[in-house]
Amino acid sequence: MDEGLLNIIFDAHLRTLPDPWQTAKRILARKNEFGITRLGSVTNLDWIGIPVVQVVRPQSLSVTVSQGKGMTFPLAAISALMESLEGWASERIAPDSIFTAPFRESKEQGLWSHLGVRDTAETLTWIDGVDLFSGLKTSVPLGLVDTAYTIPSPHPKWVPRDTSGLAASASVQHAVLHACFEILERQARCSALETPHFFDRFQINTQSVTAGLSGEIVIKVRAAGFGVGIWRIPTAHEFPVYWVHIMENGEQAPFAPLPAEGFGCAFTHDNALASALLEACQSRLGVISAAREDVRTDLYSYPGASELAGWRAQLAKGERTYQTDVNNGPLEDPLRRILTALQLAGAQAAILVHLHSDERIPLHVAKVIAPPLETNPEFHLAW
């Protein structure tokens, strides 16, 4: 890892990102190189009005359709493009950056004991990263990094394959921060699913969300004829994590009646909740558009009227008051704060693999792995 890059990542101040539409245009000027064939809005397939954009990359080795969201179309477009390029970079890892070695010979073998293996002689493919806790070079099983979801898999089935901690941005610092926030968000979700009576104990009164970007989105969604349910997930660290459901309020004929959910973690309550709300709007359009291969068939089921009414009644509950932000001043040591949060969540390492860098766009793709944090509650059900 280049020492200058680490200095940039640990810079005390977040660098300003370039104009999203200019960055999007530079990406689209090279769309053939990236394999992108379409950038299009699906916003008007629903009636909420939050911009949602899809990017199609037919030769993808994971999902071919990526989605992005934002309060404006340029923000939604760059969000979708960056998600698509995450996959593009992580399925094209240079052969000279990987190596093979028996698992039992790895000096970091203890980091991966949570995967359920101990002294296997199985040969794995590895890639080197740097542990942001210690600054030391650390080898990672490639299956935790790449998105070459081919059949048969090139990796053992006990290696969890998901995109948690994979992020792209115009700034390497923002890419790393986004990756870390995603890990904290998904680890919190796993924790919430194991918390008794979570949905009854941690629901926020939606009426108390009136200010900031999150208040603007709640007002917009409810005015469009939807109920909103908000839960704050308890964590061991300082950063708020929210879980959101949005659902048709039943006042008109059902269109996509099941709740759509979203999650968000950020430096502030407003940004975390806004992120979760936007993701829920995006998730709903993922189902409506029927364009993504990873949308499960059960999301197209049609529950009975009483079941839907029960869900709507749950969304209307919530006794906790939304916690507004006290200090919105400049952030100090953002990465060190988020690394502390990962440690408090139980991470023994935060290994950065810098997958792609191109300052002509600019574009940086990073993967952060934080063993032994659980980030995919469905993994153990898959085999």
Automatic annotation (TrEMBL):
The keyword Acetylation does not apply. The keyword Lipid metabolism does not apply. InterPro entries: YcaO-like_dom. Keywords: Plasmid. Pfam families: YcaO. Residues 68-383 form the YcaO domain. PANTHER family: RIBOSOMAL PROTEIN S12 METHYLTHIOTRANSFERASE ACCESSORY FACTOR YCAO. This is YcaO-like family protein. It comes from Rhizobium indicum.
